[in-house]
Specification:
The complex is a heterodimer of chains A (390) and B (252). Chain A is mainly beta and 390 residues long. Chain A is built from five helices and 16 strands. In chain B, helix 4 crosses helix 5 and helix 5 packs parallel to helix 6. The chains are: A mainly beta (390), B alpha/beta (252).
Amino acid sequence: MTETPAVAEAIETTKVSSHLHPEGSFRVEDHPVPTGREEIWRFTPLKRLRGLHQETALTGDTDTPVVTAPDGVVAELLGADNAVKGTSGFVPNDRISARAWEAAARTLSLRIPTEAVVEEPIVVTLTGTGTEDASATHAVVTAEPHSKATVVFRFEGSMTLADNVEIVVGDGAQLTVVNIDDWADDAVHVGHRHAQVGRDATFRHVDVTFGGDVVRHDTTAEYAGPGGSVEMLGLYFADAGQHIEHRLFVDHNAPNTESNVVYKGALQGEGAHTVWVGNVLIRKVAEGIETYEENRNLVLTDGCQADSVPNLEIETGEIAGAGHASATGRFDDEQLFYLRSRGVEENEARRLVVHGFFNDLIRRIQVPALEEELVATVEAELAKNVLKAF
Amino acid sequence: MSTLEIKDLHVSVATEDGDKEILKGVTLTIKDGETHAIMGPNGSGKSTLAYSIAGHPKYTVTGGSVTLDGEDVLAMSVDERARAGLFLAMQYPVEVPGVSVSNFLRTAKTAVDGEAPKLRTWVKDVNSTLERLDLDASFSQRSVNEGFSGGEKKRHEIAQLELLDPKVAVLDETDSGLDIDALKIVSEGVNRFREQEGKGVLLITHYTRILRYITPDYVHVFVNGRIAEEGGPDLADQLEAEGYDKYVKAGV
């Protein structure tokens, strides 16, 4: 038996085992087919995944995404064996991400060169044309040191998709990645996003989920040095029968790092189900960090279910701050009364309250073109149900 | 013209021990251009009267009537009452996160008038109203009541009163929690409203202080869900000197 000096234990940063962030593996066979009883699968309707978690071949003809890249950005469709794959340190943490890793025939690489400042967003649009054959894709976004850019991934149409997106934010870089799931009603999308955030880098992830039958996103971030900052914003709207699940993990593995997570969702219609699991790990080495996570759900009609589970694992107390909040509620009667007492009709009052609920978040996205679009999309979602129901 | 007529109003509220009657027969008429002050101790039912007139769902009217210019107010929904010309300045204005003051004011004005206000004059009206209430221009970009100080909330209520321009305003303890400067600013706003032709005001207050700035035509002492005494402005001075004790004792 070897003796480990106490001081060595105190500064270890390698392994903290927990069901919240299972050890990853590239080998599919290391990830048994889930039964639905596992902690990480217990909320997900496996039967509706069209076999993504089992053996279904991921050989669907992946329509080539349409990439709009401003000058100065290098966008390439590379082979699966290109060395850029894996540069974020991502290791598949469940069977679906391992299968997608193995099956993706190509790697879409978006590279923002060192010190490049790209004002216009880089837009990647993937439009599905059918759900019969399941597909797998892989993308790597690399923001080289001190660059600044915004990347938008937009998903539309009908598809059964498992994808992995790696994000490497170089030292001092500022990167915003926006993910918009604007699928048709029959799409199934299980996606993994992993970001490695460099020293003094700023990474903002915005996840907007409106469409699809089942959408499950694992979004994870870790730091490659001290001083990095991560903001994760999420906005989702689940309609009747829709399952939208977000699983987040921020690994504070470096000192003086920050993370701020805010996800807001609305649910309407029978069987609308949302899941939010927000995990934060503060490792022993991560002194001086600050983290806050928040999830709010607005239940607009009967028959909806919102699950919300914040988790915080703290290995050191030498931090600036750590907290979380979760709240799920219906319309606030006092808010409605206040608005109506000013002459505003009930439906209009409800619309205002929901707008306000999301506007708070939309204002923080800081991508003007997107803000207008999101306000309009919220409006369209409301028109489907809220205004009819009363 | 505008006349708010309250007749033998009975109101109860649901509690754990069953329904509890709060208003036990209130009769009060506010005629064209009159200002009535309602004064009373805590728990006498003053705020219940205000909320019942506005139609808050927590309160159940079990008897009596409320009419505005002959129209049955109790048959109207909350928003219909506002569009008919009633306004309630609330003691505890509610936060509406993410909805800006400017959006809120425009939406309310459009609802009350039945058409959108003319953009150019509206912006001017809003800015000058806010300025008179000592609220700076950035105020209209803030979320409704969110992070407002107590004084800002009350001044925002009075800004709404002036901009929405109702027939009858019910002010529920608008003076509570205000320092003397804010009290003066708020009172000036109420007085500007009263100076217009035919506006009625029902001023509910716990303290006589605000009556030094807003002179009522009538003062009513409210105790145990009823009006215990009525008089002119001098009744307020008497209350200031003697308090509510004699009415409370008589009420028991």
